[in-house]
Amino acid sequence: MIGSVIADKYKIIRKIASGGMAEVYEAIQPIVRRKVAIKILYPEYSRDERAKELFFREARLVAQELEHPNIVKVYDFGIVDNNLYLVMYYVNGETLERIIRREGKLDIKDACYIILEVLKALDYAHQKNIIHRDIKPGNIMITPEKRVYLLDFGIAALMTEDKEKGKVPGTPEYMAPEQFKGKIDKRSDLYSLGVVLYESLTGNLPFVGNDIWELQRKIFSETPKPPSYYNPNVSKVLDDIVLKALNKIPSERFQSAYEFAQAILSANIIENYYIEFRKTDIKNEVVRGGIVQEEETETGKKTQFVPISDDSETEFEFIEEKQKINFIPIFIISLTLILVGILIWFFLLRH
Known about the structure:
The chain is an alpha+beta fold. Helices cover 36% and strands 21% of the residues. It has two domains: 5-89, Phosphorylase Kinase, domain 1; 94-278, Transferase(Phosphotransferase) domain 1 (Transferase(Phosphotransferase), domain 1, Orthogonal Bundle), CATH 1.10.510.10. The protein has helices at residues 44-47, 49-65, 96-103, 108-126, 156-162, 186-202, 212-221, 236-245, 257-266, 328-350; strands spanning 5-6, 10-18, 22-29, 34-41, 74-80, 83-89, 94-95, 140-142, 148-150, 283-287, 290-297, 300-307, 317-319. The strands form three sheets. The chain has a six-stranded antiparallel sheet. Strands 12-11-10-13 form a four-stranded antiparallel sheet, with no helix packed on it. Strands 7-8-9 form a three-stranded antiparallel sheet.
Protein backbone atom coordinates (compact mmCIF):
# COMPACT_ATOMS: atom_id res chain seq x y z
CA MET A 1 0.00 0.00 0.00
CA ILE A 2 2.87 2.41 0.79
CA GLY A 3 3.82 4.26 -2.39
CA SER A 4 0.64 3.30 -4.24
CA VAL A 5 -1.71 5.89 -5.73
CA ILE A 6 -5.39 5.91 -4.75
CA ALA A 7 -7.95 7.01 -7.35
CA ASP A 8 -5.11 8.39 -9.50
CA LYS A 9 -4.88 11.34 -7.11
CA TYR A 10 -3.51 10.43 -3.70
CA LYS A 11 -0.06 8.92 -3.14
CA ILE A 12 0.20 6.90 0.08
CA ILE A 13 3.15 7.97 2.26
CA ARG A 14 2.75 5.98 5.48
CA LYS A 15 0.26 4.17 7.67
CA ILE A 16 -0.98 6.24 10.61
CA ALA A 17 -3.38 3.93 12.43
CA SER A 18 -5.76 1.00 12.12
CA GLY A 19 -9.01 0.16 13.87
CA GLY A 20 -12.04 -2.08 13.79
CA MET A 21 -13.44 -0.54 10.62
CA ALA A 22 -10.57 0.97 8.67
CA GLU A 23 -6.92 1.83 8.25
CA VAL A 24 -5.73 5.43 8.09
CA TYR A 25 -2.87 6.60 5.90
CA GLU A 26 -0.99 9.82 5.39
CA ALA A 27 -1.00 10.73 1.70
CA ILE A 28 -0.11 13.56 -0.63
CA GLN A 29 -2.25 15.03 -3.39
CA PRO A 30 0.49 16.13 -5.82
CA ILE A 31 -1.64 18.25 -8.13
CA VAL A 32 -2.41 20.73 -5.34
CA ARG A 33 0.59 19.82 -3.13
CA ARG A 34 -1.70 19.02 -0.24
CA LYS A 35 -1.13 16.54 2.56
CA VAL A 36 -4.27 14.53 3.39
CA ALA A 37 -5.40 11.66 5.59
CA ILE A 38 -7.14 8.75 3.85
CA LYS A 39 -9.34 6.37 5.79
CA ILE A 40 -9.69 3.12 3.82
CA LEU A 41 -12.50 0.91 5.08
CA TYR A 42 -12.16 -2.86 5.12
CA PRO A 43 -13.66 -4.73 2.12
CA GLU A 44 -16.66 -6.08 4.05
CA TYR A 45 -18.19 -2.60 4.13
CA SER A 46 -18.23 -2.31 0.35
CA ARG A 47 -19.72 -5.75 -0.33
CA ASP A 48 -23.11 -4.72 1.05
CA GLU A 49 -24.85 -2.48 -1.50
CA ARG A 50 -27.04 -0.86 1.16
CA ALA A 51 -24.02 -0.08 3.34
CA LYS A 52 -22.21 1.34 0.31
CA GLU A 53 -25.16 3.58 -0.58
CA LEU A 54 -25.40 4.71 3.05
CA PHE A 55 -21.69 5.53 3.14
CA PHE A 56 -21.86 7.69 0.01
CA ARG A 57 -24.94 9.52 1.23
CA GLU A 58 -23.42 10.21 4.65
CA ALA A 59 -20.03 11.19 3.25
CA ARG A 60 -21.66 13.58 0.78
CA LEU A 61 -23.70 15.15 3.58
CA VAL A 62 -20.63 15.62 5.78
CA ALA A 63 -18.52 17.00 2.93
CA GLN A 64 -21.21 19.51 1.96
CA GLU A 65 -22.66 20.48 5.35
CA LEU A 66 -19.90 20.38 7.96
CA GLU A 67 -17.64 23.43 7.69
CA HIS A 68 -16.40 24.13 11.20
CA PRO A 69 -12.93 24.87 12.66
CA ASN A 70 -13.28 21.99 15.17
CA ILE A 71 -14.46 19.37 12.66
CA VAL A 72 -12.05 17.59 10.34
CA LYS A 73 -12.99 18.55 6.79
CA VAL A 74 -13.89 15.78 4.32
CA TYR A 75 -12.43 16.56 0.87
CA ASP A 76 -13.32 13.50 -1.16
CA PHE A 77 -14.70 9.96 -1.00
CA GLY A 78 -15.19 6.99 -3.28
CA ILE A 79 -14.42 3.32 -3.85
CA VAL A 80 -11.25 1.80 -5.26
CA ASP A 81 -10.27 -1.89 -5.48
CA ASN A 82 -13.50 -2.75 -3.65
CA ASN A 83 -12.57 -0.51 -0.70
CA LEU A 84 -14.52 2.55 0.37
CA TYR A 85 -12.29 5.48 1.19
CA LEU A 86 -12.62 8.91 2.76
CA VAL A 87 -10.13 11.73 2.14
CA MET A 88 -9.83 14.23 4.99
CA TYR A 89 -7.86 17.21 6.19
CA TYR A 90 -4.58 16.02 7.66
CA VAL A 91 -4.27 16.89 11.35
CA ASN A 92 -0.73 17.04 12.66
CA GLY A 93 -1.41 15.94 16.22
CA GLU A 94 -2.36 13.01 18.39
CA THR A 95 -5.60 11.57 19.64
CA LEU A 96 -6.91 12.25 23.12
CA GLU A 97 -6.89 8.47 23.59
CA ARG A 98 -3.12 8.40 23.18
CA ILE A 99 -2.66 11.40 25.50
CA ILE A 100 -4.74 9.77 28.26
CA ARG A 101 -2.88 6.49 27.82
CA ARG A 102 0.44 8.32 28.22
CA GLU A 103 -0.43 10.82 30.96
CA GLY A 104 -3.32 9.21 32.82
CA LYS A 105 -5.58 11.97 34.03
CA LEU A 106 -5.25 15.39 32.40
CA ASP A 107 -4.88 18.78 34.01
CA ILE A 108 -8.42 19.90 34.89
CA LYS A 109 -8.21 23.09 32.83
CA ASP A 110 -6.87 21.18 29.83
CA ALA A 111 -9.62 18.57 30.09
CA CYS A 112 -12.37 21.19 30.26
CA TYR A 113 -10.85 23.16 27.38
CA ILE A 114 -10.84 20.09 25.12
CA ILE A 115 -14.46 19.29 26.01
CA LEU A 116 -15.55 22.88 25.32
CA GLU A 117 -13.93 22.76 21.88
CA VAL A 118 -15.71 19.50 21.06
CA LEU A 119 -19.00 20.98 22.32
CA LYS A 120 -18.63 23.79 19.78
CA ALA A 121 -18.33 21.19 17.03
CA LEU A 122 -21.31 19.22 18.32
CA ASP A 123 -23.50 22.30 18.66
CA TYR A 124 -22.81 23.08 15.00
CA ALA A 125 -23.47 19.52 13.81
CA HIS A 126 -26.57 18.99 15.96
CA GLN A 127 -28.19 22.13 14.58
CA LYS A 128 -27.80 20.54 11.15
CA ASN A 129 -29.45 17.38 12.55
CA ILE A 130 -26.20 15.42 12.21
CA ILE A 131 -25.42 13.12 15.15
CA HIS A 132 -21.91 11.72 15.54
CA ARG A 133 -22.83 8.42 17.30
CA ASP A 134 -19.27 7.52 18.31
CA ILE A 135 -17.79 10.25 20.53
CA LYS A 136 -14.65 8.85 22.19
CA PRO A 137 -11.04 9.93 22.86
CA GLY A 138 -9.89 8.12 19.72
CA ASN A 139 -12.03 10.44 17.61
CA ILE A 140 -10.69 13.65 19.17
CA MET A 141 -7.36 15.01 17.98
CA ILE A 142 -5.23 17.76 19.53
CA THR A 143 -2.42 19.57 17.72
CA PRO A 144 0.76 20.94 19.36
CA GLU A 145 -0.89 24.39 19.09
CA LYS A 146 -3.84 23.05 21.20
CA ARG A 147 -6.28 23.01 18.29
CA VAL A 148 -8.98 20.42 18.91
CA TYR A 149 -10.64 18.44 16.11
CA LEU A 150 -13.55 15.99 16.09
CA LEU A 151 -13.18 13.15 13.59
CA ASP A 152 -15.23 10.42 11.93
CA PHE A 153 -18.62 11.96 11.21
CA GLY A 154 -18.34 10.32 7.78
CA ILE A 155 -18.65 6.70 8.93
CA ALA A 156 -21.33 7.15 11.61
CA ALA A 157 -24.04 5.77 9.31
CA LEU A 158 -22.11 2.55 8.72
CA MET A 159 -21.91 1.98 12.46
CA THR A 160 -25.71 2.15 12.64
CA GLU A 161 -25.88 -0.28 9.73
CA ASP A 162 -23.71 -2.71 11.73
CA LYS A 163 -26.52 -3.08 14.28
CA GLU A 164 -28.54 -5.08 11.76
CA LYS A 165 -25.54 -7.42 11.37
CA GLY A 166 -25.47 -8.16 15.10
CA LYS A 167 -22.76 -5.63 15.95
CA VAL A 168 -23.15 -2.89 18.53
CA PRO A 169 -23.09 0.59 16.93
CA GLY A 170 -20.60 2.85 18.68
CA THR A 171 -17.97 2.05 21.27
CA PRO A 172 -19.74 0.36 24.22
CA GLU A 173 -17.78 2.04 27.05
CA TYR A 174 -18.87 5.47 25.76
CA MET A 175 -22.45 4.63 24.78
CA ALA A 176 -25.55 6.04 26.45
CA PRO A 177 -28.08 3.51 27.77
CA GLU A 178 -30.58 4.32 25.02
CA GLN A 179 -27.94 3.78 22.35
CA PHE A 180 -27.85 0.07 23.18
CA LYS A 181 -31.55 0.03 22.22
CA GLY A 182 -30.96 1.87 18.96
CA LYS A 183 -32.56 5.11 20.19
CA ILE A 184 -30.11 7.91 19.45
CA ASP A 185 -30.42 11.68 19.51
CA LYS A 186 -28.08 14.59 20.24
CA ARG A 187 -28.22 13.89 23.99
CA SER A 188 -26.61 10.50 23.31
CA ASP A 189 -23.59 12.35 21.91
CA LEU A 190 -23.52 14.53 25.03
CA TYR A 191 -23.57 11.45 27.28
CA SER A 192 -20.61 10.03 25.35
CA LEU A 193 -18.74 13.31 25.74
CA GLY A 194 -19.52 13.15 29.47
CA VAL A 195 -17.71 9.80 29.55
CA VAL A 196 -14.76 11.41 27.75
CA LEU A 197 -14.68 14.22 30.33
CA TYR A 198 -14.85 11.68 33.17
CA GLU A 199 -11.94 9.71 31.71
CA SER A 200 -9.91 12.87 31.03
CA LEU A 201 -10.28 13.99 34.66
CA THR A 202 -9.63 10.62 36.28
CA GLY A 203 -7.79 8.34 33.86
CA ASN A 204 -10.62 5.85 34.43
CA LEU A 205 -13.86 4.96 32.68
CA PRO A 206 -17.08 5.35 34.70
CA PHE A 207 -18.07 1.75 33.89
CA VAL A 208 -16.01 -1.31 32.97
CA GLY A 209 -17.00 -4.94 32.61
CA ASN A 210 -15.48 -8.33 31.88
CA ASP A 211 -17.75 -8.60 28.84
CA ILE A 212 -20.30 -6.54 26.95
CA TRP A 213 -23.18 -7.89 29.05
CA GLU A 214 -21.62 -6.92 32.39
CA LEU A 215 -20.70 -3.52 30.98
CA GLN A 216 -24.22 -2.96 29.67
CA ARG A 217 -25.74 -3.98 33.01
CA LYS A 218 -23.59 -1.43 34.84
CA ILE A 219 -24.38 1.34 32.37
CA PHE A 220 -28.10 0.66 32.79
CA SER A 221 -28.26 0.16 36.55
CA GLU A 222 -25.23 1.49 38.46
CA THR A 223 -24.32 5.04 39.48
CA PRO A 224 -20.72 5.97 38.66
CA LYS A 225 -18.39 7.18 41.37
CA PRO A 226 -17.89 10.96 41.14
CA PRO A 227 -14.65 12.00 39.40
CA SER A 228 -13.34 13.40 42.71
CA TYR A 229 -13.21 9.80 44.02
CA TYR A 230 -10.21 9.26 41.71
CA ASN A 231 -9.02 12.86 41.49
CA PRO A 232 -9.46 14.92 44.69
CA ASN A 233 -8.67 18.11 42.76
CA VAL A 234 -12.03 17.89 40.99
CA SER A 235 -14.53 20.26 42.62
CA LYS A 236 -18.05 19.38 43.73
CA VAL A 237 -19.39 21.65 40.97
CA LEU A 238 -17.46 19.77 38.30
CA ASP A 239 -18.51 16.45 39.84
CA ASP A 240 -22.14 17.50 39.44
CA ILE A 241 -21.60 18.58 35.83
CA VAL A 242 -20.06 15.24 34.87
CA LEU A 243 -22.70 13.20 36.68
CA LYS A 244 -25.48 15.20 35.03
CA ALA A 245 -23.98 14.47 31.63
CA LEU A 246 -23.95 10.77 32.59
CA ASN A 247 -27.56 10.65 33.77
CA LYS A 248 -29.27 7.51 32.50
CA ILE A 249 -32.45 9.44 31.65
CA PRO A 250 -31.95 11.65 28.56
CA SER A 251 -34.34 14.35 29.80
CA GLU A 252 -32.25 14.72 32.98
CA ARG A 253 -29.01 15.37 31.11
CA PHE A 254 -27.86 18.55 29.41
CA GLN A 255 -30.30 19.08 26.58
CA SER A 256 -27.88 20.77 24.20
CA ALA A 257 -24.18 21.26 23.66
CA TYR A 258 -24.69 24.92 24.51
CA GLU A 259 -26.18 24.06 27.93
CA PHE A 260 -23.32 21.64 28.65
CA ALA A 261 -20.74 24.29 27.72
CA GLN A 262 -22.38 26.99 29.82
CA ALA A 263 -22.32 24.69 32.86
CA ILE A 264 -18.55 24.19 32.46
CA LEU A 265 -17.96 27.91 31.98
CA SER A 266 -20.08 28.72 35.04
CA ALA A 267 -17.75 26.55 37.15
CA ASN A 268 -15.03 29.22 36.61
CA ILE A 269 -12.39 26.64 35.76
CA ILE A 270 -11.18 28.39 32.62
CA GLU A 271 -10.65 32.14 32.45
CA ASN A 272 -10.98 34.30 29.35
CA TYR A 273 -12.49 31.52 27.25
CA TYR A 274 -14.67 32.80 24.43
CA ILE A 275 -17.39 30.53 23.08
CA GLU A 276 -19.81 31.34 20.32
CA PHE A 277 -22.66 29.24 19.03
CA ARG A 278 -24.59 29.62 15.80
CA LYS A 279 -27.61 31.89 15.99
CA THR A 280 -30.99 30.19 15.63
CA ASP A 281 -34.60 31.21 15.92
CA ILE A 282 -36.69 30.50 19.01
CA LYS A 283 -37.28 26.77 19.10
CA ASN A 284 -39.03 24.58 21.66
CA GLU A 285 -38.04 20.94 21.58
CA VAL A 286 -40.56 18.66 23.29
CA VAL A 287 -38.87 15.81 25.11
CA ARG A 288 -39.95 13.33 27.73
CA GLY A 289 -40.39 15.15 31.02
CA GLY A 290 -40.33 18.70 29.72
CA ILE A 291 -39.65 21.26 27.05
CA VAL A 292 -36.21 22.50 26.09
CA GLN A 293 -36.58 26.16 25.26
CA GLU A 294 -33.87 27.76 23.14
CA GLU A 295 -34.17 31.52 22.71
CA GLU A 296 -31.86 33.94 20.93
CA THR A 297 -30.89 36.94 23.05
CA GLU A 298 -28.57 39.90 22.53
CA THR A 299 -25.69 38.07 24.21
CA GLY A 300 -26.24 34.67 22.66
CA LYS A 301 -28.52 31.67 22.97
CA LYS A 302 -30.35 30.92 26.21
CA THR A 303 -31.39 27.34 26.93
CA GLN A 304 -33.64 26.21 29.75
CA PHE A 305 -35.50 23.03 30.63
CA VAL A 306 -39.16 23.48 31.64
CA PRO A 307 -40.63 20.35 33.28
CA ILE A 308 -44.11 19.07 32.46
CA SER A 309 -46.19 16.71 34.56
CA ASP A 310 -46.98 14.17 31.84
CA ASP A 311 -44.64 11.20 32.28
CA SER A 312 -45.78 9.44 29.13
CA GLU A 313 -43.33 8.86 26.28
CA THR A 314 -43.33 11.87 23.98
CA GLU A 315 -42.17 11.80 20.37
CA PHE A 316 -39.76 14.54 19.33
CA GLU A 317 -41.34 17.46 17.54
CA PHE A 318 -40.27 20.97 16.74
CA ILE A 319 -42.64 23.90 17.29
CA GLU A 320 -41.54 26.59 14.87
CA GLU A 321 -44.51 28.97 15.00
CA LYS A 322 -45.53 31.16 17.90
CA GLN A 323 -48.98 30.49 19.29
CA LYS A 324 -51.64 32.71 17.74
CA ILE A 325 -54.02 34.61 20.00
CA ASN A 326 -57.70 34.08 19.18
CA PHE A 327 -59.35 37.53 19.43
CA ILE A 328 -62.94 36.39 18.68
CA PRO A 329 -63.86 35.36 22.26
CA ILE A 330 -62.30 38.58 23.58
CA PHE A 331 -64.42 40.67 21.16
CA ILE A 332 -67.67 38.86 22.10
CA ILE A 333 -67.05 39.32 25.83
CA SER A 334 -66.24 43.02 25.38
CA LEU A 335 -69.38 43.62 23.27
CA THR A 336 -71.55 41.86 25.86
CA LEU A 337 -70.18 44.01 28.67
CA ILE A 338 -70.86 47.19 26.67
CA LEU A 339 -74.50 46.15 25.97
CA VAL A 340 -75.07 45.28 29.62
CA GLY A 341 -73.68 48.68 30.61
CA ILE A 342 -76.05 50.49 28.20
CA LEU A 343 -79.08 48.57 29.51
CA ILE A 344 -78.19 49.43 33.11
CA TRP A 345 -77.80 53.12 32.16
CA PHE A 346 -81.27 53.23 30.52
CA PHE A 347 -82.79 51.44 33.52
CA LEU A 348 -81.33 54.01 35.92
CA LEU A 349 -82.60 56.95 33.78
CA ARG A 350 -86.20 55.65 33.80
CA HIS A 351 -86.24 55.07 37.54
